[in-house]
Amino acid sequence: MGCRAVDGFEARYGEMPEVLARAPGRVNIIGEHTDYNDGFVLPMAIDRFVWVAARGTPGRRVSVYSMNFGEAAGFDLDRFSRGGSGWGEYVKGVVWAFREAGYDLVGWKGVVRGNVPVGAGLSSSAALELAVARIFAYLSGIPWEPVEMAKLCQRAENQWVGTRCGIMDQLVSAAGVAGHALLIDTRDLSLEPVPLPPGTTLVVLDTGTRRNLAGSAYNERRSQCEAAARFFGVPALRDVTLGEFLAKGAGMGGPFWQRARHVITENARTLDAADAMRRGDAKALGRLMSESHRSLRDDFEVSSRELDAVVECAMARPECYGARMTGAGFGGCAIALVRSDSVDEFIPSVSSCYAEMIGISLKAYPCVPSGGATILPVAGKI
Length: 382
Ligand code: GLA
Fold this sequence. Notes:
With 382 residues, this protein is an alpha+beta fold. The protein contains eleven helices and 13 strands. Helices cover 43% and strands 22% of the residues. The strands form three sheets. Strands 5-4-6-3-1-13 form a six-stranded mixed β-sheet, sandwiched between helices. A four-stranded antiparallel β-sheet has the order 10-11-9-12. The structure holds alpha-D-galactopyranose.
């Protein structure tokens, strides 16, 4: 795939690129809708990527061609405005954020290609942002500092694209560690790599449905959490203990109580899950993942009929330790923690169960914990 971005560059511009960058998508093992509440998350960068092949140009122009969309986007570094194709806005957003932070950028031409499915909850947009940021940093002589670059890309998404997302996706795409998930404290951005329990594999279960109105529903959930934090008089729901919640929370009523209960219990589950991973306890981890799904379904109300069905199909299998939706929800993907030696039986069985229940064919594949955004040799095969 990376080579295909290089080939695509050569075909389009008649010369070799100067640099090839790659950034991963992610699954989130647990800790959903907690990052914008200053809480804990446990994502893992996966072996699905966005590649950008590029060459610096003397002028102030950025010209990018998306091999996936068969579409070009171009703008001047000093003069650009909103509007244009979806993916191109992420490129502009990254430029906007670099410039806001006071960095000097140089122009380039390039091609982008990815195999992170779009809108599936696997963070294709964060992967695109980080791959583009790596190209800009490389060509403009900006030192690559993963946490700073993740913050910059989050700003691009919050303020240019308009999704009030948290830091999780950008941070794991920037700072992922091969062979590990990352426990992230989103308040101080400290990171701890933790491995999957020995003998287990995470399988992505793509329901084939894509998010519907995710942007507005996502921003609405975030506002509800902020209102719940104000009720408790704290900066974020991270600061409310379960005891305080049970003692005083009832006064909140409405959806606020349910939203807060999800976030508060999910933070505790995430810390427990990291413990289970440190101990190599697949059963405990799986149980926590399944509890997380129920909480997202019933309290946070961001699951869907298809996600619930695929989780149910996965949970019916003896080789599955636990399963849950992953990412923002409202469609997209679930993940299952499966005994590695039984993945080949798991996938066809869950696929036929899902097809029978929902009538859509499931795309299911194991994923490999991968490293964060990187520069690759242009000529290398990957
Ligand atoms: C999206 C956002 C993340 C996070 C998840 C939900 O992926 O980009 O910041 O809030 O949803 O956990």
